[in-house]
Amino acid sequence: LSWNNGTFVVEFKDGHCTVTDKEPDYTMKMSIATLTTLLLGYKNAEKLYNMERIDTTKEAIECIDDLLFHKIPYVSDYI
Q1: Of 3, 4, 44, 79, which is most buried, counting CB atoms within 10 Å of its CB?
Q2: 51 phi-psi bin (left φ>0, alpha ψ -120 to 50, beta other)
Q3: Average confidence score pLDDT of the chain
Q4: Measured at the alpha carbon of residue 50, what is the angle toward residues 59 and 3, in degrees to the nearest 5?
């Protein structure tokens, strides 16, 4: 979908994240599918980077992996 293609600046602060207009500290390029995989915790940024699914620097990968919650996702069929 067209709204999945864009440039977004996300600020992580005090356990929350918001989309902002601030100048980013790091830049990353990935598909919406990769972003979803990353944010749901299915794979970490380092693994996605090594799979060439994220275009960025090693420093940015380390930073995002420190920020994100890493647990195996669970989706119940009974919900």
Answers
A1: 44
A2: alpha
A3: 89
A4: 80
